[in-house]
Amino acid sequence: MPKDTITDADEKVIMEAIQQAERNTSGEIRVHIENNCEGDVLDRATEVFAQLHMHLTRQRNGVLFYVAIKDHQFAVLGDAGINAIVPDHFWEDITAEVISHFKKQEYAAGLAKGVIMAGEQLKSHFPYSDKGDLNELSDDISFGK
C-alpha cells in the first residue's frame, strides 16, 4: 500500500501545496499515488485521469501528478485546455524537478514543489476569478494499490 511510504505528514504537505497552488488559478490539480504501474506510465496516468473525472472541468484545465512508488514511475499530465497553451518545456521542467527529489526519497517535497510549479504556470494562463470560480475537483490525494 502506498500509504506505507507516504505518511500523514507527507499527505498534509502535498495537500497544502495543492491548496496553495489552486488559490491563484481556476486550474485543478490532483495527485494519485500507487505502488505499481502496469504497462506504460503515460497510459496509466491517462487511465487515472479519466477515473478521477479530471476531463470534466469547465476549462479543461486539470493537471494530474501520477506516481507509482515501487516501480519508480512518474508522469504529470495536463488536460487539453492546458496543453494547448503552456510552453513546450513545461512538463519536462516539472518532471525533472520532481524526480530530483524522488531520487533522494523526498516524495512529499518533490510532489509539493512540482504542484507549486504547475500552479505558477496555471496562474498565468487560468487566473483565479472570484466570480463563480469553484474548486471542481477534490484536493485529497487518491491512492491506488
TrEMBL record:
Residues 4-118 form the TPM domain. InterPro entries: TPM_dom. It comes from the Bacteria. This is TPM domain-containing protein.
